[in-house]
Amino acid sequence: RRERQRFVDKNGRCNVQHGNLGGESSRYLSDLFTTLVDLKWRWNLLIFLLTYTVAWLIMASMWWGIAYLRGDLHQAHDDTYSPCVANVYNFPSAFLFFIETEATIGYGHRYITERCPEGIVLFLFQSLLGSVVDAFLIGCMFIKMSQPKKRAETLMFSRAAVISQRDGKLCLMFRVGNLRNSHMVSAQIRCKLIKSRQTPEGEFLPLDQCELDVGFGTGADQLFLVSPLTICHEINSDSPFFCLSQRSLRSEQFEIVVILEGIVETTGMTCQARTSYTEDEVLWGHRFLPVMSLEDGFFRVDYSQFHATFEVPTPPYSVKE
């Protein structure tokens, strides 16, 4: 069967695009900091370079303008003349003076004299503006670099989900794992069933979301994720899969979105990993292969068998039947 459009990709990316915002697009500018953090890296670097380049050119032009209006450019080599900024002869020298002042390098060749009140005011303005620009842009880059999105790439989900019996009950199961030795603190998992349905009033809901119970009442959704775990959803009378059988699974259209959240132990930041399973990726009558083995003084995890399943005897009927 041809692969259909997903709501959430296997790598966790949501296939939703917002269009025709109209006047609501101004809301992005009202929260400019978050907008910059959400941009892709290439746009962040471009804005970073353009902002500093434009700001430097404008401030250097203001220093050159003061020297031009005072006539310092024509008398800068006169030893008896006291200019606003010593040794500023043209725009390149004014630009170098601004860079030396902004970067607090201070080579000592160019400096402000005390007979230039407009230069002192411009220097104060430059210091304040430079501090604001540095705090905004460097803070934006720091937040973007410290985002735990890459940490989610070392959180694994099994390629397929399985339906088989566990403890005499029919269950939907999938596997999660953590590739790093650092733990996910307060890890919690949630599942959403996304399926179109029509209400008794005739309203059609194309992407209706329904919660799948993976142990909210028992605390099984709170994970101690130091080794691969098999997450289990018991199919009972309260489950949306109550009427699902092996035969009806072939004609169903649904998507199971899995959301794993936790705090990164090394950084203390919240991390979220997502994946999804369509009806084609749910295997009826299968079980996951074991991946844990006891070695000399420790437990070993074989991730080569992480996605592997094998068939087990499972009734082809639904729980209702």
What do these coordinates show?
With about 325 residues, the protein is an alpha+beta fold. It has 2 domains: about 25-145, Helix Hairpins; about 150-310, Sandwich (Immunoglobulin-like), CATH 2.60.40.1400. It is built from 7 helices and 14 strands. It has helices at about 25-30, 30-40, 40-70, 70-75, 90-100, 115-145, 245-250, and strands spanning about 155, 160-165, 170-180, 185-200, 205-210, 220-225, 230-235, 255-265, 270-280, 280-285, 285-290, 290-295, 300, 310. Strands 1, 2, 3, 7 and 10 form a 5-stranded mixed β-sheet that branches. Strands 4, 5, 6, 8 and 9 form a 5-stranded antiparallel β-sheet that branches.
Q: In summary, what is this structure?
A:
It is built from 7 helices and 14 strands.
Helix/strand class: alpha+beta
Radius of gyration: 31 Å
What is the domain tally? 2
What is the CATH topology assignment of the largest domain?
Immunoglobulin-like
CATH architectural grouping of the largest domain = Sandwich
What features would you highlight for this structure?
Immunoglobulin-like, 321 residues, 5-stranded antiparallel sheet, 7 helices, elongated, 28% helix, Helix Hairpins, alpha+beta, 5-stranded mixed sheet, 2 domains, 26% strand
Protein topology:
Elements: H1 26-30, H2 32-38, H3 41-70, H4 72-75, H5 91-102, H6 117-145, E1 155-157, E2 161-166, E3 169-178, E4 184-198, E5 204-212, E6 222-223, E7 229-234, H7 246-249, E8 255-264, E9 270-278, E10 282-284, E11 286-288, E12 292-294, E13 299-301, E14 309-311
Parallel strand pairs: 2-10
Antiparallel strand pairs: 1-3, 2-3, 3-7, 4-5, 4-6, 4-8, 8-9, 11-14, 12-13
